[in-house]
């Protein structure tokens, strides 16, 4: 009798120990997830958020952590590239063109997947690493009933993620992640739309003023040339007078698109005023700059803008200047050098107009010293 009682007590004790151990382990896991979520909420940009997630593999003691974003119009990708986010070094950041993949994987229940890695279920969410993952979980990020992305986690251990395992912590974290992603995207869209010219879709003067200093800093850091074009449509007033303001608007849109096509994605193009545009071309020396400007001039000369019954033709004049950073101490701020660049490109444009328009004129190469000298003129 006494022995039976002692055996029962020992069994009870071992149950209690196991429960205590589970509670302690859950409490540690909860703390880890809470720490992660608090950090996540404190991040300032989409880029910071992506880096934080993609680098959290060790934090969660996993063999794989990846992030998928639905980006039907490739806007998020181009936003990140334009902001110097190095996508190539982030192969586990996967972009999806449509919601279809998500619908197929998660169905209408919007529920997550947990269990063995199954190609048909998981392949779209994982980079195919050399060593096969044994168990995974993929949790969709859903906002207002729509898939906006997914978090994918994996392990070489088949017991790490098994069907029926509780995913409460991960689901909660993914909810927070969804809210953060949505907020960052909304903020970036709002920010970038205030920096875009609504008529032509290229950037506006405000954006140029912000970027000019950054581009000069970059040129100095990398000791690379930076070219600035000042472009102005010829006799634009006459187009408005002859064909009407709406036709003039259409010409502005078409001209901006042609210039944009001739530049690289990383180059800046901004509408500076009425029919004036400024372009900044990183790492472009003077002779190459003149070739590019000539190509733009030629393309605009060939452009025909159809507006109602009219076929409108136009030309463009371009002033160019190339900045070469001087080695050694800098005497001027990037802002002052930027002002000097625009002034010089504008002067070259004035010469192009005076030489009969439909011309490219380069004012040559300028440096920090020339900019400094210019300041005292
Ligand atoms: N349609 C249209 N016209 C605009 C817009 N913004 C400015 N303009 C017009 O653009 C014209 C610019 O003309 P000017 O600066 O005189 O120069 P231009 O006629 O191009 O002559 P040159 O530059 O000397 O070859 C003005 O008539 C402005 O009214 C716009 O958003 N849409």
UniProtKB/TrEMBL annotation:
Protein name (record): diguanylate cyclase
Gene Ontology, cellular component aspect: plasma membrane
Lineage: Bacteria, Pseudomonadati, Pseudomonadota, Gammaproteobacteria, Methylococcales
Species name: Methyloprofundus sedimenti
SUPFAM superfamilies for the chain: GAF domain-like (SSF55781), Nucleotide cyclase (SSF55073)
EC number: 2.7.7.65
InterPro entries: Diguanylate_Cyclase, DUF484, GAF-like_dom_sf, GGDEF_dom, Nucleotide_cyclase, Rev_trsase/Diguanyl_cyclase
Gene Ontology BP, a term: negative regulation of bacterial-type flagellum-dependent cell motility
Top-level division of the source organism's lineage: Bacteria
One GO molecular-function entry: diguanylate cyclase activity
One family name in Pfam for this protein: DUF484
Reaction equation(s) it catalyzes: 2 GTP = 3',3'-c-di-GMP + 2 diphosphate
Top-level enzyme category: transferase
Cofactor(s) named in the record: Mg(2+)
Residue ranges occupied by any GGDEF domain in the UniProt entry: 224-365
């Amino acid at each position: 009798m006494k022995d039976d009682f002692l055996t029962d007590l020992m069994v009870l004790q071992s149950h209690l120990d196991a429960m205590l151990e589970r509670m302690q382990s859950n409490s540690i896991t909860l703390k880890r997830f809470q720490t992660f979520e608090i950090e996540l909420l404190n991040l300032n940009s989409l880029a910071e958020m992506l880096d934080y997630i993609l680098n959290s593999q060790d934090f969660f003691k996993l063999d794989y952590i990846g992030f998928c974003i639905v980006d039907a119009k490739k806007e998020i990708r181009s936003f990140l590239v334009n902001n110097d986010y190095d996508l190539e070094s982030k192969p586990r950041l996967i972009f999806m063109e449509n919601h279809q993949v998500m619908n197929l994987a998660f169905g209408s229940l919007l529920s997550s997947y947990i269990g063995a890695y199954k190609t048909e279920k998981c392949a779209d969410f994982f980079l195919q690493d050399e060593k096969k993952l044994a168990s995974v979980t993929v949790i969709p990020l859903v906002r207002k009933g729509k898939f906006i992305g997914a978090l994918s986690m994996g392990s070489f251990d088949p017991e790490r993620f098994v069907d029926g395992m509780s995913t409460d912590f991960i689901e909660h974290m993914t909810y927070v992640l969804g809210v953060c992603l949505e907020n960052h995207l909304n903020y970036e869209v709002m920010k970038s739309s205030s920096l875009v010219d609504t008529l032509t879709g290229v950037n506006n003067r405000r954006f140029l003023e912000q970027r000019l200093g950054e581009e000069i800093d970059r040129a100095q850091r990398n000791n690379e040339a930076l070219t600035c074009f000042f472009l102005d449509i010829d006799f634009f007033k006459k187009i408005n007078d002859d064909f009407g303001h709406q036709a003039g608007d259409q010409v502005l849109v078409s001209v901006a698109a042609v210039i944009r096509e001739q530049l690289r994605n990383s180059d800046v193009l901004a509408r500076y005023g009425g029919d004036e545009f400024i372009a900044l071309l990183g790492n472009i020396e003077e002779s190459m700059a003149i070739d590019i400007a000539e190509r733009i001039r030629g393309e605009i000369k060939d452009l025909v803008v159809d507006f109602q019954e009219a076929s409108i033709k136009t030309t463009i004049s371009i002033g160019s200047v190339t900045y070469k950073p001087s080695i050694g101490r800098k005497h001027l701020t990037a802002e002052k050098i930027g002002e000097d660049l625009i002034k010089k490109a504008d002067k070259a444009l004035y010469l192009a107009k005076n030489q009969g328009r439909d011309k490219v004129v380069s004012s040559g190469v300028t440096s920090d010293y020339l900019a400094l000298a210019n300041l005292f003129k």
